[in-house]
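quick one before i forget lol
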Amino acid sequence: MSTPDQIFLAAASFIAYTYAAYPAGIWALSRTQPDECAPPLPDDACPEVTVVISAHNEAARVQRRIDNLRCLDYPQDKLHLLFVSDGSSDRTAELLRQFPGVQVIEHAERGGKAHALNAAMARAKTPVVLFCDMRQTAERQSLRLLVSTLVQPGVGAVSGELTHVDPGTQVAANIGLYWRYEKWIRKSESRWRSVVGATGAFYAIKTPYFVPLAPGTLLDDFEIPMQIARQGQRVLLDGRSLVFDELQNDMAGERKRKLRTLGGNFQSFARHPWLFSPRGNPIWLQFLSHKVFRLAVPYAMVCALISSLLSSTGWVQCLAAAQVAFYTAALIGMRSQTWRKSRLIAFATVFVELNWTAMQAGLQFASGRLDLQWEKT
Protein backbone atom coordinates (compact mmCIF):
# COMPACT_ATOMS: atom_id res chain seq x y z
CA MET A 1 0.00 0.00 0.00
CA SER A 2 1.39 3.40 -1.00
CA THR A 3 2.06 6.20 1.45
CA PRO A 4 -0.86 8.37 0.19
CA ASP A 5 -3.20 5.39 0.69
CA GLN A 6 -1.93 4.87 4.24
CA ILE A 7 -2.39 8.54 5.09
CA PHE A 8 -5.88 8.49 3.59
CA LEU A 9 -6.90 5.41 5.57
CA ALA A 10 -5.56 6.87 8.81
CA ALA A 11 -7.32 10.20 8.28
CA ALA A 12 -10.59 8.61 7.15
CA SER A 13 -10.55 6.18 10.09
CA PHE A 14 -10.03 9.06 12.51
CA ILE A 15 -13.00 10.97 11.06
CA ALA A 16 -15.15 7.83 11.07
CA TYR A 17 -14.31 7.12 14.72
CA THR A 18 -15.09 10.68 15.80
CA TYR A 19 -18.41 11.06 14.01
CA ALA A 20 -19.67 7.48 13.79
CA ALA A 21 -17.89 4.84 15.90
CA TYR A 22 -17.71 6.85 19.14
CA PRO A 23 -21.36 8.03 19.06
CA ALA A 24 -22.55 4.50 18.24
CA GLY A 25 -20.34 3.01 20.95
CA ILE A 26 -21.39 5.41 23.69
CA TRP A 27 -25.03 4.87 22.73
CA ALA A 28 -24.61 1.09 22.99
CA LEU A 29 -22.94 1.44 26.40
CA SER A 30 -25.69 3.75 27.60
CA ARG A 31 -28.32 1.09 26.88
CA THR A 32 -26.76 -1.04 29.64
CA GLN A 33 -27.53 1.61 32.28
CA PRO A 34 -30.84 2.63 33.89
CA ASP A 35 -32.44 6.00 33.20
CA GLU A 36 -31.18 8.57 35.73
CA CYS A 37 -34.24 10.85 35.70
CA ALA A 38 -35.78 10.97 39.18
CA PRO A 39 -39.46 11.67 39.94
CA PRO A 40 -40.29 15.31 40.78
CA LEU A 41 -39.59 16.28 44.37
CA PRO A 42 -42.49 17.36 46.60
CA ASP A 43 -42.33 20.95 47.87
CA ASP A 44 -41.07 20.04 51.33
CA ALA A 45 -38.13 18.08 49.87
CA CYS A 46 -37.00 20.82 47.48
CA PRO A 47 -33.70 22.41 48.55
CA GLU A 48 -33.15 26.16 48.42
CA VAL A 49 -31.79 27.34 45.08
CA THR A 50 -29.96 30.51 44.08
CA VAL A 51 -30.47 31.50 40.45
CA VAL A 52 -27.30 33.20 39.18
CA ILE A 53 -27.44 35.31 36.02
CA SER A 54 -24.77 37.60 34.60
CA ALA A 55 -26.15 40.48 32.53
CA HIS A 56 -24.60 43.17 30.39
CA ASN A 57 -26.96 45.82 28.93
CA GLU A 58 -30.01 43.57 29.19
CA ALA A 59 -32.65 46.13 30.19
CA ALA A 60 -34.98 45.03 27.39
CA ARG A 61 -35.04 41.45 28.71
CA VAL A 62 -35.33 42.05 32.46
CA GLN A 63 -39.12 41.88 32.75
CA ARG A 64 -39.50 38.70 30.70
CA ARG A 65 -36.66 36.95 32.51
CA ILE A 66 -38.04 37.77 35.96
CA ASP A 67 -41.57 36.79 34.94
CA ASN A 68 -40.34 33.43 33.67
CA LEU A 69 -38.38 32.67 36.84
CA ARG A 70 -41.31 33.64 39.06
CA CYS A 71 -43.61 31.33 37.10
CA LEU A 72 -41.45 28.26 37.63
CA ASP A 73 -43.12 25.39 39.46
CA TYR A 74 -40.79 25.61 42.43
CA PRO A 75 -41.46 26.83 45.99
CA GLN A 76 -40.89 30.57 45.64
CA ASP A 77 -39.75 30.91 49.26
CA LYS A 78 -36.86 28.58 48.36
CA LEU A 79 -35.92 30.39 45.16
CA HIS A 80 -33.41 33.25 45.43
CA LEU A 81 -32.64 35.43 42.41
CA LEU A 82 -29.14 36.90 42.16
CA PHE A 83 -28.15 39.03 39.17
CA VAL A 84 -24.75 40.51 38.37
CA SER A 85 -24.83 43.65 36.22
CA ASP A 86 -21.46 43.41 34.51
CA GLY A 87 -20.55 46.94 33.52
CA SER A 88 -23.98 47.71 32.06
CA SER A 89 -24.38 51.21 30.64
CA ASP A 90 -28.18 51.00 30.37
CA ARG A 91 -30.87 50.61 33.09
CA THR A 92 -30.27 46.88 33.72
CA ALA A 93 -29.32 47.21 37.40
CA GLU A 94 -31.95 49.89 38.06
CA LEU A 95 -34.75 47.78 36.62
CA LEU A 96 -33.65 44.64 38.46
CA ARG A 97 -33.74 46.46 41.80
CA GLN A 98 -37.41 47.32 41.28
CA PHE A 99 -38.39 43.67 41.75
CA PRO A 100 -38.88 42.54 45.36
CA GLY A 101 -36.63 39.74 46.53
CA VAL A 102 -34.10 40.20 43.71
CA GLN A 103 -30.47 40.64 44.75
CA VAL A 104 -28.25 42.70 42.46
CA ILE A 105 -24.47 42.92 42.34
CA GLU A 106 -23.45 45.88 40.22
CA HIS A 107 -19.99 46.19 38.71
CA ALA A 108 -19.28 49.64 37.33
CA GLU A 109 -16.53 48.29 35.08
CA ARG A 110 -16.99 45.29 32.87
CA GLY A 111 -15.00 42.36 34.22
CA GLY A 112 -16.35 39.54 32.05
CA LYS A 113 -18.72 36.69 32.71
CA ALA A 114 -16.24 34.59 34.71
CA HIS A 115 -15.62 37.51 37.09
CA ALA A 116 -19.39 38.04 37.45
CA LEU A 117 -20.07 34.38 38.22
CA ASN A 118 -17.27 34.24 40.80
CA ALA A 119 -18.71 37.30 42.54
CA ALA A 120 -22.16 35.73 42.62
CA MET A 121 -20.88 32.40 43.95
CA ALA A 122 -19.06 34.20 46.77
CA ARG A 123 -22.47 35.44 47.93
CA ALA A 124 -24.59 32.34 47.24
CA LYS A 125 -25.34 30.39 50.43
CA THR A 126 -27.86 27.81 49.20
CA PRO A 127 -26.95 24.14 48.62
CA VAL A 128 -27.90 24.40 44.93
CA VAL A 129 -27.11 27.06 42.34
CA LEU A 130 -28.81 27.37 38.96
CA PHE A 131 -26.90 29.11 36.17
CA CYS A 132 -28.88 30.54 33.29
CA ASP A 133 -28.81 33.42 30.81
CA MET A 134 -31.04 36.41 30.17
CA ARG A 135 -32.23 35.42 26.71
CA GLN A 136 -33.80 31.99 27.24
CA THR A 137 -37.01 30.97 28.96
CA ALA A 138 -37.59 27.75 30.87
CA GLU A 139 -40.60 25.43 30.82
CA ARG A 140 -42.61 25.65 34.03
CA GLN A 141 -41.44 22.34 35.61
CA SER A 142 -37.84 22.56 34.39
CA LEU A 143 -36.22 23.57 37.67
CA ARG A 144 -38.09 21.03 39.81
CA LEU A 145 -37.14 18.23 37.41
CA LEU A 146 -33.53 19.41 37.22
CA VAL A 147 -33.14 19.56 41.00
CA SER A 148 -34.87 16.20 41.46
CA THR A 149 -32.11 14.60 39.39
CA LEU A 150 -29.34 16.71 40.96
CA VAL A 151 -30.07 15.66 44.56
CA GLN A 152 -29.40 12.00 43.75
CA PRO A 153 -26.21 10.61 45.37
CA GLY A 154 -23.06 10.97 43.28
CA VAL A 155 -24.51 13.68 41.01
CA GLY A 156 -22.81 17.08 41.07
CA ALA A 157 -24.34 18.92 38.11
CA VAL A 158 -27.35 18.56 35.81
CA SER A 159 -28.24 20.56 32.72
CA GLY A 160 -31.52 20.97 30.91
CA GLU A 161 -32.18 20.42 27.24
CA LEU A 162 -31.99 23.44 24.96
CA THR A 163 -34.79 23.61 22.40
CA HIS A 164 -34.87 26.17 19.62
CA VAL A 165 -38.08 27.87 18.56
CA ASP A 166 -39.01 30.11 15.68
CA PRO A 167 -39.13 33.73 16.96
CA GLY A 168 -42.18 34.46 14.81
CA THR A 169 -44.43 31.54 15.62
CA GLN A 170 -42.93 30.22 18.90
CA VAL A 171 -43.33 26.74 17.45
CA ALA A 172 -40.50 24.27 17.88
CA ALA A 173 -38.37 24.51 14.76
CA ASN A 174 -36.40 21.96 12.86
CA ILE A 175 -32.91 22.96 13.93
CA GLY A 176 -31.18 20.48 11.71
CA LEU A 177 -29.72 17.03 11.73
CA TYR A 178 -26.47 18.12 13.33
CA TRP A 179 -28.05 19.52 16.53
CA ARG A 180 -30.29 16.49 16.95
CA TYR A 181 -27.23 14.29 16.48
CA GLU A 182 -25.32 16.30 19.12
CA LYS A 183 -28.13 15.98 21.67
CA TRP A 184 -28.32 12.23 21.02
CA ILE A 185 -24.63 11.91 21.93
CA ARG A 186 -25.03 14.02 25.08
CA LYS A 187 -27.97 11.95 26.28
CA SER A 188 -25.96 8.76 25.71
CA GLU A 189 -22.96 10.15 27.61
CA SER A 190 -25.22 11.19 30.47
CA ARG A 191 -26.84 7.79 30.77
CA TRP A 192 -23.48 6.00 30.58
CA ARG A 193 -21.59 8.20 33.01
CA SER A 194 -21.25 11.96 32.46
CA VAL A 195 -21.79 14.63 29.84
CA VAL A 196 -18.69 16.54 28.72
CA GLY A 197 -19.86 19.99 29.82
CA ALA A 198 -23.34 21.40 30.32
CA THR A 199 -26.02 23.40 28.53
CA GLY A 200 -25.04 26.93 29.54
CA ALA A 201 -28.57 28.28 29.24
CA PHE A 202 -29.85 26.20 32.18
CA TYR A 203 -27.75 24.03 34.48
CA ALA A 204 -27.64 23.46 38.22
CA ILE A 205 -24.79 22.40 40.50
CA LYS A 206 -24.32 21.42 44.11
CA THR A 207 -22.69 24.55 45.51
CA PRO A 208 -19.84 22.91 47.49
CA TYR A 209 -18.34 21.52 44.27
CA PHE A 210 -17.92 24.91 42.58
CA VAL A 211 -14.34 25.84 41.66
CA PRO A 212 -13.77 29.57 40.92
CA LEU A 213 -13.14 30.41 37.30
CA ALA A 214 -9.90 31.92 36.06
CA PRO A 215 -10.15 35.50 34.73
CA GLY A 216 -11.31 35.68 31.12
CA THR A 217 -12.74 32.15 31.02
CA LEU A 218 -14.92 31.80 27.93
CA LEU A 219 -16.66 28.50 28.64
CA ASP A 220 -18.05 28.46 32.16
CA ASP A 221 -20.52 25.77 31.07
CA PHE A 222 -17.58 23.51 30.20
CA GLU A 223 -15.10 24.31 32.97
CA ILE A 224 -17.51 24.33 35.94
CA PRO A 225 -19.00 20.88 35.11
CA MET A 226 -15.59 19.39 34.27
CA GLN A 227 -14.19 20.56 37.61
CA ILE A 228 -17.16 18.86 39.25
CA ALA A 229 -16.51 15.65 37.29
CA ARG A 230 -12.87 15.87 38.41
CA GLN A 231 -14.10 15.61 42.02
CA GLY A 232 -15.75 12.28 41.24
CA GLN A 233 -19.28 13.61 40.73
CA ARG A 234 -21.42 12.87 37.72
CA VAL A 235 -22.62 15.52 35.26
CA LEU A 236 -25.99 14.60 33.78
CA LEU A 237 -28.46 15.83 31.19
CA ASP A 238 -32.16 15.78 32.10
CA GLY A 239 -34.04 15.76 28.82
CA ARG A 240 -37.32 16.54 30.60
CA SER A 241 -36.04 19.93 31.74
CA LEU A 242 -36.67 22.15 28.73
CA VAL A 243 -35.34 25.63 28.11
CA PHE A 244 -36.30 27.55 24.99
CA ASP A 245 -34.19 29.83 22.84
CA GLU A 246 -35.05 31.72 19.69
CA LEU A 247 -33.33 30.86 16.45
CA GLN A 248 -30.72 33.43 15.54
CA ASN A 249 -31.29 35.34 12.30
CA ASP A 250 -28.00 37.21 12.29
CA MET A 251 -25.61 34.78 10.59
CA ALA A 252 -22.58 37.02 11.17
CA GLY A 253 -23.34 37.09 14.89
CA GLU A 254 -23.89 33.33 14.94
CA ARG A 255 -20.51 32.70 13.27
CA LYS A 256 -18.82 35.00 15.80
CA ARG A 257 -20.50 33.10 18.64
CA LYS A 258 -19.34 29.74 17.27
CA LEU A 259 -15.83 31.05 16.75
CA ARG A 260 -15.65 32.25 20.36
CA THR A 261 -17.16 29.02 21.69
CA LEU A 262 -14.81 26.77 19.75
CA GLY A 263 -11.89 29.00 20.66
CA GLY A 264 -12.91 28.66 24.29
CA ASN A 265 -12.21 24.95 24.03
CA PHE A 266 -8.58 25.67 23.13
CA GLN A 267 -8.37 28.12 26.03
CA SER A 268 -9.63 25.48 28.48
CA PHE A 269 -7.29 22.84 27.08
CA ALA A 270 -4.29 25.11 27.54
CA ARG A 271 -5.25 26.14 31.08
CA HIS A 272 -6.15 22.67 32.37
CA PRO A 273 -3.66 20.00 31.27
CA TRP A 274 -5.25 17.56 33.75
CA LEU A 275 -8.06 17.17 31.22
CA PHE A 276 -5.72 15.05 29.10
CA SER A 277 -4.74 12.71 31.94
CA PRO A 278 -6.64 9.42 32.39
CA ARG A 279 -5.82 9.66 36.09
CA GLY A 280 -6.91 13.27 36.50
CA ASN A 281 -9.99 13.20 34.27
CA PRO A 282 -12.63 10.56 35.17
CA ILE A 283 -14.31 11.02 31.77
CA TRP A 284 -11.07 11.15 29.79
CA LEU A 285 -12.25 8.99 26.88
CA GLN A 286 -15.48 10.97 26.43
CA PHE A 287 -13.51 14.22 26.63
CA LEU A 288 -11.02 13.16 23.97
CA SER A 289 -13.60 11.61 21.66
CA HIS A 290 -16.25 14.32 21.92
CA LYS A 291 -14.24 17.50 22.43
CA VAL A 292 -10.62 17.12 21.34
CA PHE A 293 -11.04 14.89 18.31
CA ARG A 294 -13.82 17.11 16.93
CA LEU A 295 -11.34 19.99 16.82
CA ALA A 296 -8.76 17.81 15.05
CA VAL A 297 -11.17 16.57 12.36
CA PRO A 298 -10.64 19.60 10.02
CA TYR A 299 -6.97 18.72 9.68
CA ALA A 300 -7.84 15.06 9.06
CA MET A 301 -10.25 16.22 6.34
CA VAL A 302 -7.45 18.12 4.61
CA CYS A 303 -5.13 15.10 4.87
CA ALA A 304 -7.81 12.76 3.53
CA LEU A 305 -8.53 14.98 0.53
CA ILE A 306 -4.92 15.64 -0.45
CA SER A 307 -3.73 12.05 0.05
CA SER A 308 -6.66 10.63 -1.94
CA LEU A 309 -5.98 13.04 -4.82
CA LEU A 310 -2.36 11.86 -4.86
CA SER A 311 -3.29 8.18 -4.76
CA SER A 312 -2.99 5.89 -7.78
CA THR A 313 -5.38 3.31 -6.30
CA GLY A 314 -8.75 3.13 -8.06
CA TRP A 315 -11.07 2.94 -5.07
CA VAL A 316 -9.20 5.72 -3.27
CA GLN A 317 -9.50 7.89 -6.39
CA CYS A 318 -13.26 7.25 -6.37
CA LEU A 319 -13.40 8.46 -2.77
CA ALA A 320 -11.38 11.51 -3.79
CA ALA A 321 -14.06 12.32 -6.36
CA ALA A 322 -16.76 11.87 -3.71
CA GLN A 323 -14.96 14.31 -1.43
CA VAL A 324 -14.67 16.90 -4.19
CA ALA A 325 -18.41 16.54 -4.87
CA PHE A 326 -19.16 16.94 -1.14
CA TYR A 327 -17.10 20.11 -0.82
CA THR A 328 -18.58 21.48 -4.03
CA ALA A 329 -22.07 20.96 -2.58
CA ALA A 330 -20.97 22.82 0.57
CA LEU A 331 -19.69 25.77 -1.48
CA ILE A 332 -22.97 25.90 -3.40
CA GLY A 333 -24.89 25.94 -0.12
CA MET A 334 -22.72 28.77 1.22
CA ARG A 335 -23.46 30.90 -1.83
CA SER A 336 -27.13 30.10 -2.38
CA GLN A 337 -29.93 29.98 0.18
CA THR A 338 -32.15 28.36 -2.47
CA TRP A 339 -29.82 25.38 -2.92
CA ARG A 340 -29.36 25.20 0.82
CA LYS A 341 -32.98 24.04 1.14
CA SER A 342 -31.77 20.66 -0.10
CA ARG A 343 -31.05 18.44 2.92
CA LEU A 344 -27.90 16.99 1.37
CA ILE A 345 -26.49 20.40 0.48
CA ALA A 346 -27.53 21.83 3.85
CA PHE A 347 -25.76 18.98 5.66
CA ALA A 348 -22.57 19.46 3.61
CA THR A 349 -22.67 23.21 4.20
CA VAL A 350 -23.15 23.00 7.97
CA PHE A 351 -20.49 20.30 8.33
CA VAL A 352 -17.88 22.22 6.34
CA GLU A 353 -18.72 25.56 7.97
CA LEU A 354 -18.39 24.07 11.46
CA ASN A 355 -15.04 22.46 10.71
CA TRP A 356 -13.73 25.57 8.98
CA THR A 357 -14.73 27.63 12.04
CA ALA A 358 -12.97 25.12 14.33
CA MET A 359 -9.79 25.52 12.29
CA GLN A 360 -10.08 29.31 12.42
CA ALA A 361 -10.63 29.23 16.18
CA GLY A 362 -7.51 27.14 16.72
CA LEU A 363 -5.39 29.41 14.56
CA GLN A 364 -6.71 32.55 16.25
CA PHE A 365 -6.06 31.14 19.71
CA ALA A 366 -2.54 30.05 18.76
CA SER A 367 -1.77 33.51 17.37
CA GLY A 368 -3.34 35.37 20.30
CA ARG A 369 -6.03 36.96 18.12
CA LEU A 370 -9.05 35.22 19.69
CA ASP A 371 -11.65 37.66 21.06
CA LEU A 372 -11.90 36.83 24.76
CA GLN A 373 -14.69 39.31 25.49
CA TRP A 374 -18.01 37.71 26.44
CA GLU A 375 -20.84 39.13 24.34
CA LYS A 376 -24.59 38.69 24.56
CA THR A 377 -26.46 37.29 21.55
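fyi The beta strands are 49-55, 79-86, 102-107, 128-132, 137-138, 155-165, 202-206, 234-246.
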